[in-house]
Amino acid sequence: MQQKIINPQDLAFQLFELHDVERVLGFDRYADHSRETLQAALDLALKVAAEEFAPHARLVDEEEPRFEQGRVVMRPEVKRALDVLRDTGLMAASQDYERGGMQLPAAVAQMCVGLLKGANVGTQGYAGLTIAAANLIMVQGSEAQQQRYAEPMMAGRFFGTMCLTEPQAGSSLGDLRTRAEPQADGSYRLFGSKIYISGGDHELSDNIIHMVLARLPDAPPGVKGISLFLVPKFLVTEDGRLGERNDVALAGLIHKMGYRGTTSTMLNFGERDGAVGYLVGEPHQGLAAMFHMMNEARIGVGLGSVMLGYTGYLHALDYARERRQGRPVGEKDPATAQVPLIRHADIRRMLLAQKAYVEGGLALCLEGAMLVDEKKHAATDAERRQAAGLLDLLTPVIKSWPSRYCLEANSLAIQVHGGYGYTREYPVEQFYRDNRLNPIHEGTHGIQGLDLLGRKVSMAGGEHYHELMRRMEASLAEARQHARLTGSADRLDVAMRAMAAATDAINGEKQRGNTEKALANATLYLDAFGHVVVGWLWLRQALRALSGLAGKGEQTPEFYEGKVRVCDYFTRYELPNVISTAELLQAVDTTALDMVDEQF
Amino acid sequence: MQQKIINPQDLAFQLFELHDVERVLGFDRYADHSRETLQAALDLALKVAAEEFAPHARLVDEEEPRFEQGRVVMRPEVKRALDVLRDTGLMAASQDYERGGMQLPAAVAQMCVGLLKGANVGTQGYAGLTIAAANLIMVQGSEAQQQRYAEPMMAGRFFGTMCLTEPQAGSSLGDLRTRAEPQADGSYRLFGSKIYISGGDHELSDNIIHMVLARLPDAPPGVKGISLFLVPKFLVTEDGRLGERNDVALAGLIHKMGYRGTTSTMLNFGERDGAVGYLVGEPHQGLAAMFHMMNEARIGVGLGSVMLGYTGYLHALDYARERRQGRPVGEKDPATAQVPLIRHADIRRMLLAQKAYVEGGLALCLEGAMLVDEKKHAATDAERRQAAGLLDLLTPVIKSWPSRYCLEANSLAIQVHGGYGYTREYPVEQFYRDNRLNPIHEGTHGIQGLDLLGRKVSMAGGEHYHELMRRMEASLAEARQHARLTGSADRLDVAMRAMAAATDAINGEKQRGNTEKALANATLYLDAFGHVVVGWLWLRQALRALSGLAGKGEQTPEFYEGKVRVCDYFTRYELPNVISTAELLQAVDTTALDMVDEQF
């Protein structure tokens, strides 16, 4: 565990025991893979993360990218690390062999990226955005676009961005104004300004491919009038050579609290005669195209939160074991030696909470990644449809739960360090600053709550929601066969029933047409729902750990015992808060809705 | 409210209606004061805060003090602001007239400092530490020490520090090693290293007076062997002139996540022939001497948290009123204009939570400040004793509750701002970074929890705890006479009973000698106890607001209505979580205690 990015036992447990990633090797797509090839990819990612990414994580925070004479200037370590990453082939981890990819299962591919995030989220950002943009072209783009743009991106020669936000619109994408004018040759000219464009300019790659949301001249207002365009920094000739500089100008850099290594830019499209762009997919279908990739992007955000929480936890654990301070309660003799911090109950409680959040969050993100594979590659239509529905339902939870609770884990890691944790001599304060972005980007908690409660829970007549409940019930039944888990099962059961009652009450309100009232506490619903889902994943971890304790597993008995105990902790200390929230929700409380401006 | 430091209606309400600070004007000490003189001091503090402190708050974060050739170099605005503050006389706000003080009641004096904290906590730090150190000398020092050191401090010519922490001891003060060797002339020579010394070196004042904890040669081990010394940077002659430089060396600066304007230093005492120091108070009574001032210092920390939360809330409120984004749930026409953020229920919920935390926290800190005055100046021994006991009991809550929940308010202020809130173009991210110190310094949450549950609750046979319960019961009875408050009263009642049962169970465990088990969840106890206390203060605010609505008050009806609604919010959304925590506590849960190192 020397690298302090992940506990290797936990990584192996989660992938190969809890989620049994080997079961997807039965899908045709993964027929060439084995436990060994998956492990080799993970080992490679961990090595690059520890050796090339982690060492300059603090450096890119202290010396963030600068705007100098129209260029973005940054530390040379960033390019070196990304060059090494490119050479591993991991930037195409999940892509087809014929495109130069490794055709790895989604859970393993996501995990490889996750390890880089835990090591240095700032530098990883450039690669992560490129992978996401390439995926988007591979799904939505034409064959020519795939060859000309996506393949060099997967090979790490071109990097990519996502250009959604505009200053006047923020989260309200329907209000974006960037316009695209059709040209005689079938291309478009784009005019408009975008903000918060991560990796929007740099000299890390030969080219930058911007995926831009804009409006055609005949576009209807709102989200139904948005189209997706591909806008390269340098035009690319038919034979793949770089042509002239496109009309995309760097208007400035945005300076952030954390995540400083990933430069955030303002870009102006069409300051001169318009930025040359190419339509991706159908006209006016841009938002749907973008959202097609959102499930995976949001798993990426969730996993990024988890990994920042995870590295913070490992740093805190290490510190608590090494740092001697104070004496046990009841030890009155000041001449005795000081004990390691981990001997204090309150320090253990803070470590337990961190472990519960980060390992619970990891189980959640990997659950989502497994569903990505089942949705695409499962044997039957029915299985694929069910996986797709569950993934849709869980996506807002996967995006938001870790970004709240693994941020809290980072705060607890600071607290374990005491005064040292607040200084920039120790890394935990940076994790906390870096992680504070995750509740905001790719849809705030508020947006995710409306998505979950306003759409996902009642989607397909509640079919996906009921399927999730059915799976939870099955785990409860299994857990009740073990004396050590009946308490946890009972506590989860109570929380599930409370949330089910709340869901029914809210659905009733929606059916009566009181949408605003029904959704007034959607963020609280999201939070409580997430706790129930993670409680379920902890119960499943404990179940698997009991098998391990019975000899059916590869980890140490102490590791398995720890899992059972954290399940107990989570259902005792964390789940009960769901009950009071569920009662508020069931009553369809309108306290916030009724407060008027002048009363603040 | 243009200054965004405090809502003037709330300030007036809290001081003059809720806490009725005018009642202390009946004490002899304050006979010269009137509503007008108190208001004049507050107005002066607010003017200095807004005009001299706030404008450079971001600047001292961006350009924090630097270590150059053995000196601390910082922005000139800091000295200018502190010079203006010195000239107002506010640095001696609570001191005697004869010492050059203003003899203001504690609640008003604290509030004056609080306004400076809300404006610029970094620059205020130098003044705050000086006030605290001067107070310490005024209570514990000899007449000569008071004249030679404290008076120039109160006049702002000398600044002060508190030197407690050492690298090997951290929170475990009993393990500090700095030693003091007696000299023939009655002075001492000090040898040792201190860390995290805020304001430990600078050129803002003619001299710096360090209040240092150290051990005499014959000291017993542990906290019973600590003495308090006064160590000036420059020796001071009998006639008050500055003499030679003392043997106190700046070993380096510590760089922090926030609170960057207040330089944090490492100081070496006695690198040459020993730093000249003077004993303050009795030998081996240093910790008691220091803790004599702790109640007020901890109110200061709590109030600092509140004011950082408060300014963040006002910035978020302003932004939510001005920024237009999105449309109400149910508005399907994208051609309609975007609405202000405050129209969205989830934004209102986040503003409500912030208002509940910061105005609840302010009520809590002012409750403590009122007790400071009653403890010192109330008419009878019994009243003074009761006030002192309640203050002791509430101090850990006053220190810790705001430092958790007003930090959460700062996080919510970022969330209301969305992506902008994460950038350094907006001030809310700095408030969040600044406020993250408060759960750590002056005793972490863990330390405060042990203080509350291990000592304060059972102090004097539980007398102070029962007095607090009695006062809460009285408020419940009063609230139940108002139809609008019966729901809140009932919810508070349930939470109180749950915590009373938990307290009884824990006390039983202590009496059976199981101290470690009894205190294992002391931090959770602290948190839940704090929520009950703040719930009580919200009920009292609502009661007072109903009087205001009935015509007995100076604020607007909307303001009073808002108070009643926030009380409702707090008891509906916040208090119920106390119940589940109380159940854990009542069961004397040992999940964290039982987890062993290898299971992490």
Task: Provide the descriptors you would attach to this structure in a database record.
two-stranded antiparallel sheet, Butyryl-CoA Dehydrogenase, subunit A, domain 3, alpha+beta, oxidoreductase (chains A, B), 4 domains, 21 helices, Butyryl-Coa Dehydrogenase, subunit A, domain 1, Acyl-CoA_dh-like_C_dom (chains A, B), eight-stranded mixed β-sheet, homodimer, 56% helix, 600 residues, Butyryl-CoA Dehydrogenase, subunit A, domain 2
What characteristic shape of chain A results from the CA principal axes? Answer: globular
The name CATH uses for the topology of the largest domain in chain A is: Butyryl-CoA Dehydrogenase, subunit A, domain 3
As residue ranges, the low-confidence spans of chain A are none
Most extensive interface between two protein chains, with residue counts: A-B, 99 and 99 residues
Going by CATH, the homologous superfamily of the largest domain in chain A would be Butyryl-CoA Dehydrogenase, subunit A, domain 3
What is the terminal-to-terminal distance of chain A? 50 Å
Strands of chain A, count: 12
The computed structural class of chain A is: alpha+beta
Rg of chain A, alpha carbons: 24 Å
Provide the β-strand percentage band of chain A.
5-15%
Please write the CATH class name of the largest domain in chain A.
Answer: Mainly Alpha
Largest sheet of chain A: 8 strands, mixed
The count of helical stretches of chain A stands at 21
What number of domains of chain A?
Answer: 4
Give a summary of the structure in a few sentences.
The structure is a homodimer of 600-residue chains. With 600 residues, chain A is an alpha+beta fold. Helices cover 56% and strands 11% of the residues of chain A.
